[in-house]
Amino acid sequence: MYRRNELRVSPNNNFWSWNEHTIGWSLMGDANAEEAVLMIHGFGANTNHWRFNQPVLAEHVPTYAVDLLGFGRSDQPRARLKEEPPSANAVHYCFDLWGQQVADFCREVINRPVRLVGNSIGGVVALRAAQLLGEQCHCVVLINCAQRLMDDKQLATQSAWMTWIRPLLKTMVRQRWLSTALFRNAARPVVIRSILKQAYPSGANIDNALVDLLYQPTQRDGSAEAFRGFINLFDDHLAPDLMHNLSVPVHLIWGEKDPWEPLTEAHRWFNLIACVRSIHTVPGAGHCPHDEDPETTNAYILRILATI
Question: Which residues of the chain, if any, have pLDDT below 70?
Answer without folding.
Answer: 1-13, 156, 158-162, 308
